[in-house]
Write a structure and sequence with these properties.
mainly alpha; 9 helices
Length: 207
């Protein structure tokens, strides 16, 4: 399709408008004509900035999982795992703010999204005396853990402490039902403690 000679909108405006539509109406309601109408332009204007809908979704994923995730301010030191815990919680908060976009993130999250920050993170770990042979294990593990756990949570309905595992039947699953009854951690706190346990476990296993 031919592109109009002059762009009428910005790339950022189109991404933000896409997120607004997905948040308010759901992913199935999103389309290029609807996005164009939301922006007050004709659909061809979008082709100044994006080749197709997939490219828009990639930028939506980049914005939600990268741009809006705040990097914690923390000095290097022995409590370095708390930097990653805070970062993971910020990532979770950003994703859950846009639950309807979870399928977009599953399919269109750029593989290089986090790599650009890894050099700074590795420097932080080095200054915190984390052995360099553990850096890849930590970075890869955190990426896998955070993305997997948070996107799984985003795809489900919000849960309470007693519904973390839904549809548990006390008669046929008495031990699991009792475990849920005994659990005092919210979904957020469970995620936080899982991240913390992973990081301390990597160091403990290395000793």
């Amino acid at each position: 399709m031919a592109r109009p000679s002059k762009p009428l909108i910005s790339r950022d405006a189109a991404v933000n408008a896409s997120i607004e539509i997905i948040d308010s109406e759901g992913l199935d309601a999103f389309s290029l004509p609807k996005l164009a109408k939301h922006l007050g332009v004709r659909a061809p204007s979008l082709y100044h900035h994006f080749a197709d809908k997939n490219e828009i979704f990639t930028e939506v994923a980049r914005y939600i999982a990268g741009t809006t995730v705040a990097t914690p301010r923390r000095r290097p030191g022995p409590d370095w795992p708390e930097f990653f815990v805070s970062l993971a919680l910020n990532f979770r908060q950003s994703i859950l703010r846009h639950r309807n976009a979870a399928p977009v993130l599953l399919q269109h999250l750029p593989r290089d999204l986090f790599v650009s920050t890894y050099e700074d993170t590795a420097q932080f770990m080095l200054e915190s005396n984390v052995p360099i042979e553990l850096h890849v294990r930590i970075l890869d593990g955190m990426e896998t853990l955070a993305i997997g756990a948070v996107l799984m949570e985003a795809m489900r309905k919000p849960s309470t402490k007693s519904t973390i595992f839904p549809n548990v039947d006390a008669a046929s699953q008495p031990i699991l039902a009792e475990a849920l009854e005994s659990n005092e951690l919210t979904q957020k706190k469970l995620f936080e403690e899982t991240v913390r346990s992973f990081l301390h476990g990597v160091i403990r296993d290395h000793m």
